């Protein structure tokens, strides 16, 4: 029973992504994955010629067999299992490695700089539980429906922003000195952490480099990264949107640019962030050569 | 002196520039929480009844906190000097989220169209709403800051809803 | 109505959060300068004489401008409740720059992480630090405003450094 639920989750996951992309574009590919998934569900072993498809198929198979939640995958465990499986299946490790490597990099970036701040801002205030989500549509209740329409069609908003004072005071000397003491301690701690992270990063990229050595993927990627980096440097502004770096509107270019940007972020040349995860706009901040 | 304590609490409300809790007032004045509560109620009454025509400010309960702000009647002129932060379309979206909460992002999308995503972004950045993953969509609720920010005397969703209904009918009556 | 105009001016003084000129009041209310002057004098009188014991605020003339502020008597309790104009994270970064100056931006990055870039931007906007290109990185120093702001009796980096060390090692006790 539990197993079935998770499998459905994987299919939902795919369908959800399908709903986000254009009809013609990548939908056929997603359809393809859904079919693939249904076949494995029926006990059919995956045998696909395209190496890229095969490596993805294995990823799905793993998620299903290991009862992983597709919305919340522990990438560390996943990578270990995935590479083991890929080896067993004699999958082209270059492609497989690339998938894991990119996933890892993104995860590392997130855990380095984002997770800490996210924890801090998380509020404990939770007036609702999942059980509170209305099952019927908002349209089905007359009052709710008319309220919504009223609000949308009003010339002004029903809520007024109150006017309060915005006064602030100067920082006191005590606060300055306390801040200095804290800053020193925090900076020391940060540097210790940063050293550990650097060593871990170096170890990982060494591993990945070995895996990708001499492949066509590596060559292309390096070239792409170079081009994107040059583009970023041509912008007078420090912060730009990822779309600023794309010439055409195609998904393929966007993915190529995103990959390059992730590499650059990994090298600390740029900072990549979203105001909202996962569908917010992606911003890139150049950090110079320093 | 009782009278002086009242003035002390008033001066805190004036200087804070944001809603303050009873605890914060206690920390800054040393007055006991019970006494502070009594003083706050007196102050609310003083401003809204006794001195009604002799002041352009009011003291209100905002969520679990208290604040001094300009009376609605005088907002139009003073808003120019204090610069509001939220435009009226965004305020409407916020109203809808507060009214229907917990509201699925996909339903908000159905109500107001694609701008829903940008608005959710902005409101979340302002910490006025929470957005939490729920399966394939996001569940939207207002945060604790919401009633504080707008001077709403409740943190309960049902009471916030009542407040919002009153607001809409108030505005509609003003227009006519 | 005269009474309402008085309230309008009062609401401007309250919400401005800083001294305002007669001209600024005029722009926001449309009342004539002569009338504004009259109203301001009345308000000063109301707060300081008529309502003397019924308010903790006062309206005063500050240079050519006017402002509403907390009476001296209540300042001690109320001052700390206002937000400091520099938030504590920014302040920490500022102290590191002051201590290590001249400090390479890349070194600051190593000390506190990527937030260094945002902080440098903000501090430079506040004119508390200077950032000058130096090869491929930026060189950071404090401005003259820095010692002024904190009442430190020196503009020399070495003396600022000594000052910070002494104060910290003095366990914050000797500052007054």
SSE topology:
The complex is a heterotrimer, with 1 copy of chain A (290 residues) and 2 copies of chain B (176 residues).
Chain A: H1 2-20, H2 27-41, H3 51-65, H4 75-88, H5 93-121, H6 142-153, E1 168-169, H7 173-212, H8 216-234, E2 239-241, H9 251-266, E3 270-274, E4 282-286
Helix pairs in contact in A: 1-2, 1-3, 2-3, 3-4, 4-5, 5-7, 5-9, 8-9
Chain B: H1 2-16, H2 22-29, H3 33-50, E1 57-62, E2 65-70, H4 75-82, H5 88-100, E3 103-104, H6 105-112, H7 115-125, E4 129-134, E5 137-142, H8 145-150, H9 157-175
Antiparallel strand pairs in B: 1-2, 3-5, 4-5
Structure in words:
The complex is a heterotrimer, with one copy of chain A (290 residues) and two copies of chain B (176 residues). Chain A is mostly helical and 290 residues long. Chain A has helices spanning 2-20, 27-41, 51-65, 75-88, 93-121, 142-153, 173-212, 216-234, 251-266, and strands spanning 168-169, 239-241, 270-274, 282-286. In chain A, a hairpin with a 7-residue loop joins strand 3 and strand 4. Chain A is extended and about 65 Å long. Mean pLDDT of chain A is 66; it is low at 1-7, 16-27 and 104-124. In chain B, strands 3-5-4 form a three-stranded antiparallel β-sheet. A two-stranded antiparallel ribbon of chain B has the order 1-2. Chain B is globular, with a radius of gyration of 18 Å. Chains A and B meet through helix 1 and helix 6 of A and strand 2, helix 4, helix 5, strand 3 and helix 6 of B. Strand 1 of chain A pairs parallel with strand 3 of chain C, so a sheet runs across the interface.
């Amino acid at each position: 029973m539990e197993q079935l639920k998770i499998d459905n989750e994987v299919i939902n996951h795919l369908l959800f992504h399908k709903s986000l992309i254009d009809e013609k574009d990548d939908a056929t590919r997603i359809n393809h994955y859904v079919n693939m998934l249904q076949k494995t569900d029926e006990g059919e072993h995956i045998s696909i010629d395209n190496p890229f498809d095969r490596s993805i198929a294995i990823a799905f198979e793993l998620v299903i067999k290991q009862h992983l939640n597709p919305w919340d995958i522990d990438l560390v465990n996943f990578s270990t299992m995935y590479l083991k499986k890929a080896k067993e299946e004699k999958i082209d490790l270059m492609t497989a490695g690339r998938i894991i490597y990119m996933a890892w990099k993104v995860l590392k970036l997130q855990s380095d700089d984002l997770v800490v701040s996210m924890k801090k801002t998380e509020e404990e205030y939770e007036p609702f539980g999942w059980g509170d989500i209305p099952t019927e549509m908002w349209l089905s209740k007359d009052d709710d429906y008319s309220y919504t329409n009223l609000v949308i069609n009003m010339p002004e908003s029903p809520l007024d922003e109150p006017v309060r004072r915005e006064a602030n005071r100067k920082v006191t000397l005590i606060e300055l000195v306390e801040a200095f003491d804290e800053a020193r301690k925090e900076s020391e701690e940060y540097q210790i952490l940063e050293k550990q992270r650097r060593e871990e990063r170096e170890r990982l990229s060494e591993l990945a480099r070995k895996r990708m050595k001499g492949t066509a993927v590596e060559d292309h990627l390096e070239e792409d990264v170079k081009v994107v980096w040059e583009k970023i440097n041509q912008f007078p502004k420090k912060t730009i949107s990822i779309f600023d770096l794309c010439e055409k509107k195609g998904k393929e270019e966007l993915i190529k640019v995103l990959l390059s940007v992730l590499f650059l972020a990994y090298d600390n040349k740029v900072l990549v962030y979203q105001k909202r995860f996962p569908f917010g706009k992606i911003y890139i901040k150049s950090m110079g050569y320093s | 002196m009782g009278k002086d304590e009242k003035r002390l609490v008033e001066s805190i409300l004036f200087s804070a520039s944001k809603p303050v809790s009873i605890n914060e007032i206690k920390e800054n004045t040393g007055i006991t929480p019970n006494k502070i509560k009594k003083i706050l109620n007196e102050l609310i009454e003083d401003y809204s009844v006794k001195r009604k025509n002799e002041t352009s400010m009011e003291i209100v309960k905002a969520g679990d906190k208290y604040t001094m702000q300009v009376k609605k009647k005088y907002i139009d002129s003073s808003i120019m000097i204090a610069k509001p932060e939220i435009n009226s379309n965004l305020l409407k979206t916020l109203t809808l989220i507060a009214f229907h909460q917990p509201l699925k992002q996909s339903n908000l999308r159905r109500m107001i169209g694609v701008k829903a995503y940008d608005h959710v972004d902005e409101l979340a950045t302002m910490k006025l709403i929470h957005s939490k993953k729920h399966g394939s969509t996001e569940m939207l609720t207002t945060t604790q800051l919401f009633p504080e920010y707008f001077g709403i005397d409740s943190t309960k969703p049902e009471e916030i809803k009542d407040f919002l209904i009153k607001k809409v009918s108030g505005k509609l009556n003003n227009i006519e």
